[in-house]
Predict the 3D structure of the following.
Amino acid sequence: MKKNDLYSKEEKRFRDKNKIYATQSVKQIAYSTDNRDFGQVARSIPCQDACPAKTNIPGYIRCVYEKRYGRAYELNRVANVLPGVLGRICSRPCESACRHGEPENGVSVGICHLKRSCADLKPASHKIIEGLYSPTNKHVAVIGSGPAGLATAHDLAILGHKVTIYEAEDKPGGMMMYGIPEFRLPRDLLLLEIKNIVRLGIEMKTGQMIGRDITLDELKNDHDAVVIATGCVSPRMLGVPGEDLVNLHNGLEFMRSVNQGGKPFVGKKVVVIGAGFTAVDCARSAIRLGAADVSINIRKTIEYMRIDETEKHEAQFEGIKTYSLIQPSKIMGENGIVTGIEFIRTRLEKTQRPPYRKSVPIENSQFVIKANSVIAALGQTPDSQVISNELGSIDKNEHKSGIDGVFLAGDFVTGSSDVISAVAGGKKCARAIDEYMTGEIRKQTVVRLENHKTTDRPRAFDFIGKIVMNTVEMDARLTDADTEVETGYKDDQAHEEAKRCYLCNLKYEIDPLACIYCSACIDVAPKDCIKMIKDVPVATDGTFGPYVETNQWNNVVSIAIDNANCIRCGNCLAVCPMDCISVTKTELIEIDT
Amino acid sequence: MPSNDHYVIIGNGPAGNHAASVLRNKDKDAKITIISDECTPYYYKPKLTGFIQGKISARELMVNGPDDYTNGYYKNIRIRLGQTIERIDPDFNAVFLNHMEKIQYTGLIIASGGQARVLPSMIPYAEHLSFIASYSDVMDIKDRIDKAEEFFIFGGDLVGFKFLRMLNAMGKKTSVLIYPNAFWPYNLTDDMLEKIIKSLSGLTSDIIVKDDIKKIEKNESGFRVFTQKGVVKTTDLIFSFNGMAPNIDFAVGCGLDTDHGILVDEYLKTNIDNIYACGSCAQVYNPSIKSYCVSIGWPNAMVQGEVCALNLLGEKKVVESVGRKYFDLEGVRIKTTWWDDINDDSLRM
Ligand SMILES: Cc1cc2nc3c(=O)[nH]c(=O)nc-3n(C[C@H](O)[C@H](O)[C@H](O)COP(=O)(O)OP(=O)(O)OC[C@H]3O[C@@H](n4cnc5c(N)ncnc54)[C@H](O)[C@@H]3O)c2cc1C
Ligand SMILES: Cc1cc2nc3c(=O)[nH]c(=O)nc-3n(C[C@H](O)[C@H](O)[C@H](O)COP(=O)(O)OP(=O)(O)OC[C@H]3O[C@@H](n4cnc5c(N)ncnc54)[C@H](O)[C@@H]3O)c2cc1C
Ligand code: SF4
Ligand code: SF4
């Protein structure tokens, strides 16, 4: 029997196409700090670029595909110390940027659901690995145990510093504990991930309010550096008559009460005002408190709501309506109790700065609707006065206050944002403090480049539909208000969803010196991804700008793959008669300097 | 001097076609292109139920045949069927088709209509549901409707009742689950609901109210529908009639202001000067109620298409709603014309 007869026809075809494997015995790896490589990674991997923590998304999705959930969890944890939490409640800027969601490419990959899968499906025996530095004898005080404080504390502890967290509340976690409702984020999971952070030797002192129990000066005297990560706690007010009526709730207070087991009065008809996470959580909690008619009312249009699609969907599923282009002008009441609300209609007007639209009231367009309660969830701002009125000029980028040795992280410095931004800010802040205390840069981000010979996935994967998240039925949501609504992917569902990722971290390049300009690759390309170019401009920040295309053969300097359009199908690689197309795996990694 | 203008119209329904004919009448030289993702020429959606029943032929369903665009009223209008607009790039005055072709315009009219709304609660079961919102929907299901004996209809809306009448005339057995708040674009009060049930009792013997679908199971021959209150129905086909959602995905994020639909002022102009929208994809500012609303119905789409075209050519005509101010929904008079009139508190409480 010939050796080839061992294989079925299909398998043989697969083996032939992939025979290149056999020659890939030696890995060629390079590390780069060249801006052009950073620029290329940002352009090529849109999901990672959109993630404030720069999570290696294609890397962990590939591990999920290979069912290496533990490794996938670790890849997440390098960038973000709360993978299980963020796999549930992240605002998902990555999914809006995902190449699979671009026009013609279908629907973005369920990046966040897959992140959750890493946490849910990793083996019980999984061990978290930390690359610890030796002790430095430096001591840092972190004020606030929200995601920013936790991430800062974790990274400082890794770098060998002693850390104490001072938290005003009885439990750690910040808004993850007191803002986000339990039906979206189970508290045992949150506490487990917090435990995995503090077990590095971080001391957690709860019930300690800085500015009341201890002063900032006292902390400064006892520590080498102090981080303020106290978030945003001052709620924005409606600023309309009737704000003092009974049954007008402030969104943050309302959620805090619900999360501590309280049952604030809502009545049958509830009007929620606001366009962010808090508004939606208040509305969904009101349904669980027995309201029958709950609406979210927003000043601009649904396009400008600051929540992700899944949350929008779940709110709709629970029967919550959204009314746009209206803003409250008066809260109506009788005998000091809310009876309704007067709205004025609005229209959009262009502005010069993001988000480029503001809402403008339309004169004489007021109308009144009845309501048993009103929840004002307009967001919140930081309250620096509690800690000190003398923080001086703040450098947001460097995370520095005007006081030597006092640093800032999270919502306190950025204004109300989201958990992943707070985590990313915490990490950056830890690096800044380390440099301040040691006088050295001890960690650096570089681009790792590794030769890679295959596409890693067949084109058929591109046509798999998105796997829908499993959720509990409405009855169960109402029977126990804390029941987690989303129940996660099962093992085979995670594997299937992971197949959908194009693996944009694989960079395709044509070697212009070997290319014979046969244009076979252009003929088989499914996208406008291979271009005849006459120039590649370099931008002011040292990265490559978009290619300058030409259709005049005389002017062509190269046929080039535009990695911002490439869906990594491998068609070009398969047809190239000169084998001049190379694939390189590109990753942002942190190295010790 | 011949005009260099190229007016591109997205959508081949009444709004798009009426816009095209006005443009052609007023500007003899301009290039006019209608692009539609449907493969059929301009047809009467309201007559689809008659077509299913076999009362009218496919030819009678058509308003215009392909020849009408080379001769007569619609002369010299390029009609491109079966081609989907994927994206608009207002900075370069271009639309992109899904086969990567780029078409340049001097003026753009968006008349992309609406598609059957799938209730968020029904998304997990969407593959089991049938809709009647276009000719291709009908072609997909026509034979199965002929063969099927039992039908489950849920939601409501005007099209739903039209369909129910049709099934009754065809001698089919039907069950109807009515959502008082899904009678797009109205919410029904208990009083209204009672009258409607009375009126519908002539068309179906099985009306379910104040209940909801819990689960749908597919079996060999059809489906089993389970309701929250424990009713179980075996049926051959399930139809969802829960209103229409504007078709605007291709326009979101390109710089046009959108909400439920594409936001336009009373002149049907979007926030970008040379782009207008009309028909059931537009969310129109109505100065008399000082609010934006999505209009419904064929007559509104026709008038909006015409106003849109005139304004694109430089006029300043305010659009007005046409048709009946009140709708007769199975014997109940309901204020109509505008969708989701939250101004009217009686509809919200
Ligand atoms: C209801 C609600 C829902 C949300 N949902 C989401 C979501 O789904 N996804 C998402 O990404 N983001 C969400 N967010 C936003 C997110 O929670 C915040 O952006 C994030 O928690 C900010 O992190 P932080 O560490 O900067 O601050 P915080 O989480 O606010 O933590 C600050 C901590 O500092 C403590 N503190 C304050 N003052 C003092 C003091 N003087 N002394 C000691 N301790 C002090 C506070 O008690 C708190 O524990 C939501 C927010 C709310 C309110
Ligand atoms: C079964 C049925 C019965 C009805 N009965 C009545 C009635 O009795 N009375 C009444 O007044 N109204 C009735 N209507 C409603 C009426 O048909 C609509 O209000 C009217 O068709 C809206 O017109 P339009 O031009 O805005 O959009 P449409 O007629 O929906 O046309 C929009 C066109 O744009 C196309 N399109 C959408 N997106 C794209 C894209 N990305 N690229 C290219 N093309 C695109 C669509 O495929 C479609 O061809 C009925 C509707 C249905 C479905
Ligand atoms: S396809 Fe994968 S790698 Fe590419 S952007 Fe989407 S999630 Fe990221
Ligand atoms: S792998 Fe090649 S052919 Fe496929 S999308 Fe990328 S550049 Fe185009």
User: Anything to note?
Assistant: The pocket of iron/sulfur cluster (ligand 3) is lined by residues A 45-47, 57-58, 61, 98-100, 109, 111, 501-504 (CB under 6 Å). Residues 335-349 of chain B have pLDDT under 50 and may be disordered. Chain B has two domains: 6-113+247-325, 117-244. Residues 131 and 239 of chain B are 6 Å apart (CA to CA).
